[in-house]
Amino acid sequence: MKKVMLSIALASSALLSGCVVSVGGGSDSHYSADWEDREYNNRQHIAALESGMTYESVLRKMGVADFNELFEKQDGTYRVLFYRTQKTMGDGITTKDECTPLVFRNSQLVGWGDSAYAFMN
User: I need a labelling partner for 36 at 20 to 30 A (CA). Which of 1, 5, 7, 20 fits?
Assistant: First the structure.
């Protein structure tokens, strides 16, 4: 009986020795291509934006933002949407420094990029 079990174990390990299972996709090329495609698409959409576009029209074009901020100032209500456009670390986690901010005042696009975001503060 031990010989049969040993034979089965050896046969199954020989069959499975060539199998590789990838879970999570942390650094494989498919995972990287997904992020690169997303960043490229976001940059393309941002390049086609026009000042004065409505919040709703930009959201339809861009999709859900990676980060979203809303605050009130004396001159109106500001909303900032952050979209991932460049990778700084290959850890798979999106941070604001990897994003381009889109700045809206009273639901109208007034600017994008770091300088537009810094101007508000």
Answer: 20
